[in-house]
Design a protein that fits this description.
Helices cover 48% and strands 14% of the residues. With 381 residues, the chain is of the alpha/beta class. The protein has two domains: 198 residues, Rossmann fold; 173 residues, N-(1-d-carboxylethyl)-l-norvaline Dehydrogenase, domain 2, CATH 1.10.1040. It has a six-stranded parallel beta sheet with strand order 5-2-1-6-7-8, with helices on both faces. It has a three-stranded mixed beta sheet with strand order 4-3-10, covered by helices on one side. It is globular and about 60 Å long. The termini are far apart. It binds nicotinamide-adenine-dinucleotide and D-Mannitol-1-phosphate (44H). Nicotinamide-adenine-dinucleotide binds next to helix 1, strand 2 and helix 4. Keywords: NAD, Oxidoreductase.
Length: 381
């Protein structure tokens, strides 16, 4: 292995505008793997694309030195690339990890024992997404011991990359802010060289602070915005009643983060205030449909609403704003979003208790269960 090589699954917004860019800046040749034939053909036939940042300290970056492979039609080629790569990353969505895992498993099984272990990092908005990916990879390996040929590290990624102008081609507009935290412990002394990432011993506080602040706040504005008939995120945040709902949920998640991870309350408040400014950035043309996408995932057990609300309830602490927002999220009805369609079907076909058990994963005896049932029932009536 001479030059550095990374295979990245998911050449979408965060793939091109964040992970691909950072790996490129770190000196890796990036091989993008995606199932979108049009996107892959376009990448394969275009030598470079441009990432334009907006916001404080914005720069413009040209990304080149990449290749692109269709992972639906060229599985064996993708496997061969991973088998000789230093790093494999994903930004496909947590529900898709199980589909990319068999390719990573096949590559690990094929990898020469002379090569250093493959670094595997899922870059998704989910707690311990790499652990989910690892479980699927191990399931697909002919011998679980082969997993020793890879190092699996959880990560937390933060950069708002909205849906792009259809005329932009491969170019991506992103906010200038970004953060990529990667757990260092799995790597021992051999952490990958990625200067724009930072390696931390314990990722839990980072990923929970990110998911339960950035993503909880973001989704709160999206669902309240949708219910109010607002379509752009910047408009949602500049609507005082919606901004107040966001501040209310973030006060609740702050209380949890402070109690659980011993964060300094003032530091967490400064983080919230900084994010309120990020969210409202009028230069980012983000939509409530994108930020609220896949509502069934977002209403899941370890996700941005039920996750913190359940822990608050277990500690006897209030979670009224989080629960109220879950109720508002039920109105998210976007015909182009299959999970939104399924959400609407489940709301008409299931009694409130079954809906809550199925969608939120809460059990009947849980201290949050009755509160969530109440908002579902109110929505149904
Ligand atoms: N956009 C953001 O602001 C942002 C920020 C941080 C994290 N994330 C996370 O990154 C992930 C991707 O989000 P996005 O906004 O880039 O979405 P996106 O829809 O723009 O990109 C996802 C890409 O994955 C591809 N894909 C789907 N199935 C695949 C498969 N089986 N194999 C390979 N590729 C496949 C799609 O074709 C698409 O190009 C999500 O987990 C999201 O939560 C997004
Ligand atoms: O990607 P999702 O669907 O989990 O969440 C939508 C947005 O909140 C998200 O993509 C943010 O823009 C991103 O997490 C910012 O780092």
């Amino acid at each position: 292995m001479s030059a550095l090589k990374a295979v990245h699954f998911g050449a979408g917004n965060i793939g091109r505008g964040f992970v691909g860019l950072i790996l490129h800046k770190a000196g890796y040749e990036v091989v993008f793997a995606d199932v979108n034939a049009e996107l892959i053909d376009s990448l394969a036939s275009t030598p470079s694309y441009v990432v334009t940042e907006v916001g404080d300290g914005a720069s413009v970056w040209t990304v080149d030195n990449y290749r692109a492979l269709n992972s639906a039609t060229h599985e064996a080629d993708v496997v061969a690339e991973i088998a000789t790569a230093n790093i494999v990353t994903t930004a496909v969505g947590p529900n898709i990890l199980r589909f990319v895992a068999p390719l990573i498993a096949a590559a690990i099984a094929q990898r020469s024992a002379d090569l250093p272990p493959l670094a595997v990092m899922a870059c998704e908005n989910a707690i311990n997404a790499t652990d989910l990916l690892k479980a699927e990879v191990v399931k697909a390996l002919p011998d679980a011991a082969l997993a020793e040929g890879a190092v699996f590290a959880n990560t937390a990624v933060d950069r708002i990359v909205p849906g792009q102008d259809p005329d932009a081609g491969l170019d991506v507009t992103v906010e200038s802010f970004f953060e990529w935290a990667i757990e260092s412990t799995p790597f021992g002394a051999a952490t990958p060289v990625i200067p724009d990432a930072h390696f931390v011993d314990d990722l839990a506080p980072y990923i929970e602070r990110k998911l339960f602040t950035v993503n909880t706040g973001h989704a709160t504005a999206a669902y309240h915005g949708f219910a109010a008939g607002v379509s752009s995120m910047s408009e949602a945040f500049s609507t005082p009643a919606i901004a107040a709902e966001v501040r209310a949920v973030l006060a609740e998640t702050k209380a949890l983060l402070v109690a659980k991870h011993d964060f300094d309350p003032e530091v967490q408040q400064a983080y919230i205030d900084k994010n309120m400014v990020r969210f409202a950035n009028p230069e980012l043309s983000d939509t409530v449909d994108r930020v609220g996408r896949q509502p069934l995932r977002k209403l899941g057990r370890n996700e941005r609403f039920v996750g913190p609300a359940a822990e608050l309830a277990e500690r006897g602490m209030p979670s009224d704003a989080l629960v109220r927002t879950m109720g508002v999220a039920l109105a998210f009805d976007v015909p182009e979003d299959p999970q939104s369609v399924e959400l609407q079907q489940l709301l008409t076909s299931l009694p409130a208790e079954s809906f809550v058990a199925q969608v939120s994963g809460l059990e009947e005896g849980h201290p949050l269960f009755a509160d969530v049932v109440a908002v579902v029932r109110a929505h149904q009536s």
